[in-house]
Amino acid sequence: MNKVDWASRLDPFSPGPPSSEAYLELRQGRTEAAAEAFQKAIDRDPYNYKNYEALGNLQRQQLGDPEAAVKSYRKALERNPHAATIISRLGEALLSAGTSDENLEEARTHYEWLQARGRIPLRDLYTLGKVQTRLGEPEEAIETFEEAKERADTEPEESSSDESRQTQRRAFLDSLDLAIADALVVEGSFEEAREYLAQSEAEQAPAILTLLNDDPVSYRQSVFDAPIN
Question: Residue 2, by phi and psi: left (phi above 0), alpha (psi -120 to 50) or beta?
């Protein structure tokens, strides 16, 4: 009998032993067993949000089950409604579970809650703009993307030796340029979108500009068909 089993038998009502067992199983790559152990911990203490959150992380990242993760995160959020990290992960799980209007609306609600309180991560701000675009709210999306650009521009510059981070930052700014062009197309502002793409430094901008010139209707539809995250 290992230490975790022994502790669990000594205190059969504590969520600690099965929670420890879950992390041990995770370290050994036994994800299904880890999920079962987290569920045991939840059964022992259904009011502890941390085990719901941990189970949701496991379901989303290792088990590839975003629908189950959504349920776990919702339960975690019921017990800790102001946890920014859980709200962010719930939004991501919702979008991974599918881009139905229901999922989009709920994800937007969560991201806007974070935004209104100044607690939204930069990457989630970008995702919020994409969600707003998909919901047919291009003006709001453009405002969100511009806010993300301003934040990205005002963040401290990385040292010149850190080329990887600078490359990531440049790629993020390029993604924002393309996202703004998408929102302009959804809005019907084709000429403004052309001008935006023409001045963008994004590598994909010329090809997208060609598509916009050749078939703006197909381009607009592709915005609605593309995955969000």
Answer: beta
